[in-house]
Amino acid sequence: MFSKEALSKRFGGKWSVESVGVLNSARNEAEDLKHRSINTGDILLGLTVEPSLSKMGLDHDSVRQTVLQINGVGNGLSPDIWSFTPRAAEVIERTIEEARRQDHKLIINPHLILSLIREGEGTSSEVMRILKVDVNKLRKIILEDINQRISANDENLTPNIQSGRSVYLNYLETIRKFMKSPNQDPTLQNQIGFVLKGLAGLIEASNPSDISKK
Q1: Residue 103 neighbours by CB distance under 10 Å
Q2: How far apart are CA 6 and CA 78, in angstroms?
Q3: What per-residue confidence (pLDDT) applies to 58?
Q4: Out of 117-126, 136-145, 147-156, least confident range
Q5: Which of 14, 42, 145, 146 has its CB 3.0 to 4.6 Å from that of 30, i.e. a possible disulfide?
Q6: Residue 87 contacts by C-beta under 8 Å, 6 or more apart in sequence?
């Protein structure tokens, strides 16, 4: 089974207990369906514990039935614990990028969901198409979920650094990328509102006397 330490050593990033649990569930799903390697559909099955997915029609039974419709039953899971399909491995890498881009302390389930949406192909995307999931609406829901967790001071999402300066720089870099190519990345577009709110919060929390001295 996967552990936080093993995932960090293999892929990088810092993994939360919840995200490790999802990947272990994905491996169990792959084993049960006798898939040779863990694919994006298996990861999606592991993520069905998230209420936001169930609300969009991605409950475990519906997703499992659709995964079976697409892939059928395989010939058995590889004994190699790190046996991911190329697309599933890309999803893992993008998940780490997603957490880093938002400057979050740990990788959580919403990062995995956003990465699956960005992937755009593979079993998970085909499942969403068959179940007629509005991916733009789902992306918005997930970003709102992250924002709510930040507002609730979720320790998994606290900045990965001590200095507020790095937070400012991260926000400004996101805005810079958006201004350079506003139509290329829908995920980036949806994040701009949260970025601006984050900047406003940081400014409000700053000591006015400190600002006036600069």
Answers
A1: 19
A2: 18
A3: 93
A4: 147-156
A5: 42
A6: 39, 40, 119, 121, 122
Mean pLDDT of 46-68: 92
- Tokens 């399909």 identify what position? 85
**For the purposes of burial, counting CB atoms within 10 Å of the CB of 12, is it exposed (0-12), middle (13-18) or buried (19 or more)?**
middle
Half-sphere exposure for 77 (CA within 13 Å, toward CB): 18
At 81, the amino acid letter reads: I
Say how many CA atoms lie within 13 Å of 166 toward its Cβ: 12
* CB atoms near residue 156 (< 10 Å): 19
Among residues 111, 137, 118, 127, the alpha carbon closest in space to that of 50 is found at 111
Q: Which phi and psi angles does 132 have, rounded to 5°?
A: 55, 50
Q: What is the mean pLDDT of residues 20-41?
A: 92
Question: In this structure, what token pair is assigned to residue 71?
Answer: 């892939």
Q: Where are the alpha helices (DSSP H) in 82-160?
A: 86-101, 109-119, 122-130, 135-151
Q: Tell me the pLDDT band of 108, cut-offs 50, 70 and 90.
A: very high
